[in-house]
Amino acid sequence: MAETILNRRIVMASRPTGMPTPENFRMEEVEEPCESPEGGVLLKTLFFSLDPYMRGRMDAGPSYAQALEPGGVMEGGSVCEVIASRQPEFRPGDIVLASTGWQTHPRVSAKGLRKIDPALAPVSTALGVLGMPGMTAYTGLLNIGSPKPGETLVVAAASGAVGSAVGQIGRIKGCRVVGIAGGPEKTRYIREDLGFDVALDHRATDFDEQLKAACPDGVDIYFENVGGRVWDLVRPLLNNFARVPVCGLIAQYNGVPAGEAASAVPLRSVLVKRLRIQGFIVSDFAAQRDEFLRDMGAWVASAQVKYREDVVEGIDNTVPAFLGLLEGRNFGKLLIRP
Amino acid sequence: MAETILNRRIVMASRPTGMPTPENFRMEEVEEPCESPEGGVLLKTLFFSLDPYMRGRMDAGPSYAQALEPGGVMEGGSVCEVIASRQPEFRPGDIVLASTGWQTHPRVSAKGLRKIDPALAPVSTALGVLGMPGMTAYTGLLNIGSPKPGETLVVAAASGAVGSAVGQIGRIKGCRVVGIAGGPEKTRYIREDLGFDVALDHRATDFDEQLKAACPDGVDIYFENVGGRVWDLVRPLLNNFARVPVCGLIAQYNGVPAGEAASAVPLRSVLVKRLRIQGFIVSDFAAQRDEFLRDMGAWVASAQVKYREDVVEGIDNTVPAFLGLLEGRNFGKLLIRP
Complex ipTM, two decimals? Predict the structure, then answer.
């Protein structure tokens, strides 16, 4: 009777050890009824998000979210169009922010869906500068980083979705912003397009010297999203009372590279320099969502905060795009248009 | 013409390597005029304080205070009587809080002296529960620890000047307080006299098991004043959103013991558990002095906060007492009555 629809979805075939490989993923194609489930909605995915944190979900063991089990659909944020609905508040054609992960036609409960107004901004920004990454930057920098005019803020992965927002908000708050990125294209972008005060290429052979020279007054805020070697080089530059919001450790998501130690902070330097080192994830500050949308919406509208999207077409290209993200090969907020 | 007075003082003869020895100190006796210096005061020391932080001052290299140079008088807080004064605001017989260190008859500028009212509390408490150690406990626990009713607070060196105040303030704030101390006398004291919920002896062979059993709901606040092995055992017990005010690392003040690593926090656990690790010294919160004196004065007056002093008679016994402090042999706030 009812028509069917082909839902294409990517599941974790097996847990990766270290850097994931294509074999850790599997595409599934499922013929499903072309109607909403009882009490829920049928969606068509317009964009889904690829983010570094997804690597962590693939590991077993305790983290801030439950681990994904083998066979499960890769999880994450998405922007979808409602195709069919059994919930009066969602009508076909509505655009919603969802958490349906790597799939083309999710059939889900309406719980947790949030309507997006396409008139306000491109809908894809709900996954980027006006979504989770933007709010991660905003809440972590303002709540933990406590930026003050004239202070030096250092941020790595600075052309990425989180880092680019951190640096630009830091500029708005009056900080001198030193961004770290990989390669001339990205450093040019953060300096010239985003207005960072200094842009450093971590691939430069004298990167350690460049970093020191870029921070003649030390570092007051280091927004930590990479860990590894950058952390080791920034740590000695931290000033008394420096703040370190710890948002990610992408350099060690695939395990600690041979010859490197797991990134750590000695308590002696915490004491002597009176450092504040604090981890967070964006949901810890969920109560600040309205404030974030108000401020960030205004900054984006006035172009005080710019953003860049790296949109990959086709769900078949998801896995290579994700592996590239883990190696820093994306340039801007990485999205799949399936 | 003028009479003279014999000032006996202890200087650092040489920098210690690891645990200090008596040879690192030297007593000097100086015949000085029995009158106040130009614009200053002549004092007679009633008590001077011995504190763990003094070990740090003996090292060269950067810390939060300038290092003491060999030949310099050992520094620290004192309570003194004014003998002679060229400053109208200080009269002979006045009792003052000073920073004159390990000496009997300091002749100093009046700058930084603070009058003490002997009617309010025993004057020695200005070096203990109503002084630097008490304020260290109060400001670190309340500003960084943010204690909430029902939370589990762990504090080591719990019979000491800072630890005992931390635990009792934690109780006042509704926490379940687990104290760690060395030996049956101290654990009995913190449990029975101070009202800690649990008292653990870190010398027990199954201390690690006892600690785990004492924290069935994990640890929400760990007030760090020792580092070393206790830190390594507490760390896995920290709950999500746990706070760690870092106030001292007495276990490693004499250097890192062989076979031990320098105490550190892995950034991965900071991230996954969203820990807040923050160093401080009491002067960072100097603006809260009045608030501290008001609250702590009331708690001491009502015996909600009790304190214990370990008063050693005679300046000649200072060095053994200090070395004992570094090994945990004192019992309560250590003071010298010279």
Answer: 0.86
